[in-house]
Every structure is written in structure tokens, then in C-alpha cells.
Amino acid sequence: MSRTGGKRPHEFPKSSRVVRSSEFTKALRRGGVAANDCLVVFALPHDVPDADGEPSPDKSKTVKCRLGVTIPKKTGNAVVRNRWKRLIREAFRLNQSQLPGGFDYVVRPKKDVTADWKMIEKGFVKLVGRAVRRSQSSTDRSSTRS
């Protein structure tokens, strides 16, 4: 909420974030992947069962999408890593309404690329869509094997 009491149209509350280490690991290992010259995006549906076969205990069963950002230390010093995080979060925040709901997205930069807002903004929605399609096709293949 803003100070004036009105709801902001593009916000990034904690409920829109992937925060647990296990959720990051699950998305990185089992999610669909898409990459361009700048970013790598992993997408995993919220209701994917854990290793023990139980659906993940997600308190918010809404169709909201969540974002996790992981920036390796090899990317640069703290200033560089924080810039990457700010730009990726901003691209997510501004394009949230265009993204498919019900997915966790984990985003990281490619190696040896400098943070460029135009490249991030231009490719973000396209990459997410491609990662979602790959995630859905991989879950379709795994369900037919069972």
C-alpha cells in the first residue's frame, strides 16, 4: 500500500517472491529452462509434488506467479549483483500481468554479461513464456511415463 492509502498497480510483496532454498532448488532442477544472451529463466508450476509425492505446501493456492532471483558471486561485486537484482525485479513487477500465473520463476544472469535494462526488459516476457511451455511439456512427458 502506498502512503496515500491506495493500492499500487504494480507491486512486489513477499507473497510474490520465491524465498525458500528448497523452492529455488526444485525450480532449478525440475523446471523448464529458457535462455537468451542476457538471462536464464527457470519455470515450475506451484503444485508440483515433492520428492515424497505430496504436493508442495503452498499457503497461497491462488494463480499468482512468484519470482526468485539468484545472482552468482562470479557476476561481480555487491554493487553489480544488486543492480542485476533490481533490474530483474523491476522487469517482473512491470510485466506481472502478462505472465502466466501459478508458476515459480527463478531468474539468473548469464556469465560475463553486463546488466542492461533494455535487454532485460525486452526479453523477459518472451523468456518466461518459453520456460513455461518447456515446463509444461516436461511435466506432460513425465506423467505419461508413470
UniProtKB/TrEMBL annotation:
State the superkingdom. Bacteria
The catalysed reaction is: Endonucleolytic cleavage of RNA, removing 5'-extranucleotides from tRNA precursor
GO terms (molecular function) for this protein are: 3'-tRNA processing endoribonuclease activity; ribonuclease P activity; tRNA binding
Signal peptide location: none
Under which EC number(s) is this enzyme classified? Answer: 3.1.26.5
Task: Read off the SUPFAM superfamilies from this record.
Answer: Ribosomal protein S5 domain 2-like
Q: Coiled coil where?
A: none
GO BP: tRNA 5'-leader removal
Keywords assigned: Endonuclease, Hydrolase, Nuclease, RNA-binding, tRNA processing
Q: Which HAMAP family match?
A: RNase_P
Its job: RNaseP catalyzes the removal of the 5'-leader sequence from pre-tRNA to produce the mature 5'-terminus. It can also cleave other RNA substrates such as 4.5S RNA. The protein component plays an auxiliary but essential role in vivo by binding to the 5'-leader sequence and broadening the substrate specificity of the ribozyme.
Q: Which family does it belong to?
A: Belongs to the RnpA family.
Q: How does it assemble?
A: Consists of a catalytic RNA component (M1 or rnpB) and a protein subunit.
Question: What protein name does the entry list?
Answer: Ribonuclease P protein component
Annotated organism of origin? Rhodopirellula baltica WH47
